[in-house]
Structures are given as structure tokens and as C-alpha cells.
Amino acid sequence: MTGKSSRASGDRRQPLALAAVLLLQGIAAVFFVGDAVGDMLLDPTSPEGMLESLVALALVAGVVLSGLQLRAALERLATQERTLDTARGKLSDVIATQFQAWGLTPAERDVGLLALKGLDVSDIAALRGAAQGTVRAQLTRIYAKAGVSGRAQFGAWFVEDLLEDDLTLAPNEKTAARTAERS
Amino acid sequence: MSRDLDRGAEAAPLPPDPWDPLVRISHWLIAGVVLVNGLLSKPGGNLHVWLGWVALGTLAVRLLWGFVGPSEARFSAFLPDPVGALRHLRDLLRGRPSEYPSHNPAGAIMVYALWGCLAIVVATGLVMTDMKSPVTIAEDRAAVAAGDWSVLVDDSETAESDHEGDGIAKELHELAANLMLLLAMVHVGGVVIESRALRRNLVRPMLTGRGKMK
Ligand code: HEM
Ligand code: HEM
């Protein structure tokens, strides 16, 4: 929190505010629904009761939508964090975490790492003292677990985020460099 | 601290640091309400009922979050698993508890027990107050205080019929509330013991999240 870029901490405050509002909405919805139900029970056909039910419905829908929005914000933040970690040279950590998230077995993790390093099937088989068929089967399982079509996509998975960010960062850096030159 | 050292290459994924803001805020709201209502506020008083409704809303949002939230906040990440819970407690006794990506299995059981107690307490509280919202209750009381007793007369007609139910509701309310306070003490004790055993502060991710870790 201290001394980090203000953009990063700002990004982190956004979900906090969203979550606070979401809870407030939820609590308000419960109070309102409680009141509306009470009124409806007293006089089910009153126009006031109908209106209250409508508002109650809107409140509940708002809570659900805010929830989905909050999750999207959190996911965006997690991607950003992963990108930053990758850029900071923590690629191996990122890979290890992701391998775990995909549920790779220890053997599959080793094979996956070697594949990422660019070794081909015969190299990996020789290194691990295993049959090529075994390695090929392991790779197939790894790609299936990662939800990628093959080796190229598998490697791309880890650099994709980086490249995306580069595209948005590059122009800014250029302008910054130019202003620096001028002054 | 020594997070990276502790985990080694094959360690299990850790719970989030920090927990997402909704889990954090809802946790401290619920803890606050339980402590204030269980120990401080006048039983059945206006504040007590208001806070009870706050707990109801908070619980509802948290349970919704259990379906739509990030993976570690979802019920699917900490399904009740009594066998796993016993295994975890055994590992803890041996001083070698494992890490889990969400609540540990024993903690998960506690979480469900606390939420369950809270649900019972709130439900019985609502029965005792005839499902009236705190606004209505406050209005009624103000009317009575001003000398208008008619609200009480209106009430007694309906209240008379389920008078029996009210007694049970009151017993249950008190029982579940006290059980919850007891469980909360065990819960805090568990957090302390687990923090010691894992040599990392479990409370900070629930408070502010990332601090010294990086
Ligand atoms: C909507 C929520 C709630 C409502 C409407 C409610 C209502 C009430 C009422 C009317 C009483 C008075 C019972 C009596 O003596 O006749 C009471 C007592 C009490 N409530 Fe609640 N309550 C709620 C939530 C809670 C919560 C969340 C707690 C947390 C621990 C709690 C703890 C207690 C305790 C300890 C008593 C004293 C029990 C006794 O000695 O009879 N209540 N509540
Ligand atoms: C009456 C008080 C309390 C109640 C009812 C309560 C209830 C809960 C619940 C329901 C959860 C699950 C959170 C979720 O998934 O949304 C939880 C988790 C947690 N609580 Fe509490 N809590 C209380 C007090 C405290 C206190 C005082 C502390 C700190 C010392 C604490 C520390 C934690 C921690 C660290 C977790 C996360 C456990 C983990 O790492 O798996 N709680 N609590």
C-alpha cells in the first residue's frame, strides 16, 4: 500500500467501494422487502403494495447485477496482478500457480515446464527417461486441462497478458519520452 | 514474510491474500452484529432489531456471493467435508497442517455452523417480532409511548394465537445466540492456533490484505 504506484492502489480501492455499496444495497433491499411484504400481507391488492413489490424487485436485481460487476472488477484486478508479476520477472511463480490451478500432476508440471522451455517430445523423453508416447500423452492431457489447442497456444497463454498491456502502454511511453526530450 | 520459502515448489495453493472485499466487509459486519446483539444491546430493543436486520441483509448478500463470487469465496471451494475436517484437525495436532485454497475443511464446518446459527437466530427473532420491520416496530413503540395503545390491541389478536410458538422461538433464539457466541470463541481460537501452526498471520488477509508479504 505504501509508495506503490497510485494507479495500482486506486484500482484496489474500486472493488472495496463496490463491495461496500453492494452490501448496503443488500441490507436496504432486505429492509424494503420486509416492509413491502408486511404491507402486502395487510392489503394484498393495494396499489401501494404493488409499487413496493416492483421497487423491491428492482433492488434485488440491482444487488445481483452489482455482484456480477464486482466479480468482473476482481477478475480484471487478478489479471492485472498476474501481468505485473510476470513483468516483474516472476514468470516461474505465475507458471507454477497456473499449473496448480489447472490441476496438473507433479509429472505433468515437469513436462509442461520443459515444453514451455521449448524442448520437443524426444528431448523431454530423453531427459525424463520416459517413452516418447508417454510424454506425448502427458502433453495432450496438459493441453486439455489448460483448455488450449496445442503447444503454440500453451506457450502463448503466459505471454498473452503481457502483450496486451504492451499495446496500451506503448503510446503513453512514447509521448512521455517525447515530452522528456523537449524539456 | 516467508510465504515463498514456506510453500516450496509443490505446496498447495494458498487462500487469497487479501480475501475479496465483500468477504471481508461482510465478515466484520456479521462479527460486529453478533457481538453487539449477543452481549451489549438490549434484547428485543430497537437497536437489537435494526442490527438483526442488518445481519440478515449481510448474510443474504454473502450467501449470494457464495454462488457468483470469485472461486475462493464460493461454496464449491469449501464444501462441508467432515472427514477432511477431522484429517485437518489431526494434522494440526501433529503440527503439520496443510494449506488450502479457501477455508480449511475444519474452518469450513465452523463457517457453516456460524452462518446456520445466525440464520436460526434471525429467523426466530423475526418470529418473535411478528416479521415486523424495525421501522414498524419503532413506530408502534412510539405510538404506545405517546399513549396510543391501539397497536397493542391489534397485535394481541394475532399474537395470542401463536403465543405457544413465541415461547419456543424465544428459547431457540437464546440457545442459538449463545451457541453462536461460543462457536465464535472457538473460531477465534482456531484462527490463532492455525496462524501459529502455519507461521503466518491469517487475520491480516481478513482485515486489509497485502502488507508485508511482497
Ligand atoms: C432480525 C433479527 C433479530 C430480532 C428481530 C431479534 C429479536 C429479539 C427479541 C424480540 C428478543 C427479546 C426476547 C425476549 O426476551 O422476549 C431478543 C433477545 C435476544 N437476542 Fe435477538 N433478535 C435478532 C437478532 C439477534 C442476533 C443476530 C443476536 C446475536 C447473538 C441476538 C441475540 C439475542 C440475545 C442473546 C437475546 C436474549 C435472549 C433472552 O435472554 O431471552 N438476536 N431478540
Ligand atoms: C462473533 C464473531 C465472529 C463471527 C460470527 C465470525 C464468523 C466468520 C465467518 C462466517 C467466516 C467465513 C467468512 C466467509 O467466507 O465469508 C469467518 C472467517 C474468518 N474469521 Fe471470523 N467471525 C467472528 C469473529 C472473528 C474474529 C474476532 C477474528 C479475528 C481474530 C476472526 C477471524 C477470521 C478469519 C481469519 C477468517 C478466515 C479464516 C480462513 O482463513 O479460512 N473472526 N468468520
TrEMBL record, chain A:
Signal peptide: none annotated. GO terms for biological process: regulation of DNA-templated transcription. Keywords: DNA-binding, Membrane, Transmembrane, Transmembrane helix. Residues 101-158 form the HTH luxR-type domain. InterPro entries: Sig_transdc_resp-reg_C-effctor, Tscrpt_reg_LuxR_C, WH-like_DNA-bd_sf. The chain crosses the membrane at residues 16-34, 54-74. GO terms for molecular function: DNA binding. This is DNA-binding transcriptional regulator, CsgD family. It comes from Salipiger thiooxidans. The lineage of its organism: Bacteria, Pseudomonadati, Pseudomonadota, Alphaproteobacteria, Rhodobacterales.
TrEMBL record, chain B:
The chain crosses the membrane at residues 22-40, 47-68, 106-127. Residues 19-209 form the Cytochrome b561 bacterial/Ni-hydrogenase domain. One of its GO terms (cellular component) is plasma membrane. It holds the Pfam family Ni_hydr_CYTB. Keywords: Cell membrane, Membrane, Transmembrane, Transmembrane helix. The keyword Cell membrane applies. Its main location: membrane. It is a multi-pass membrane protein. It is found in: Cell membrane. It comes from the Bacteria. One of its GO terms (biological process) is respiratory electron transport chain. One of its GO terms (molecular function) is electron transfer activity. PANTHER family: BLL0597 PROTEIN, NI/FE-HYDROGENASE 1 B-TYPE CYTOCHROME SUBUNIT. This is Cytochrome b. It comes from Salipiger thiooxidans.
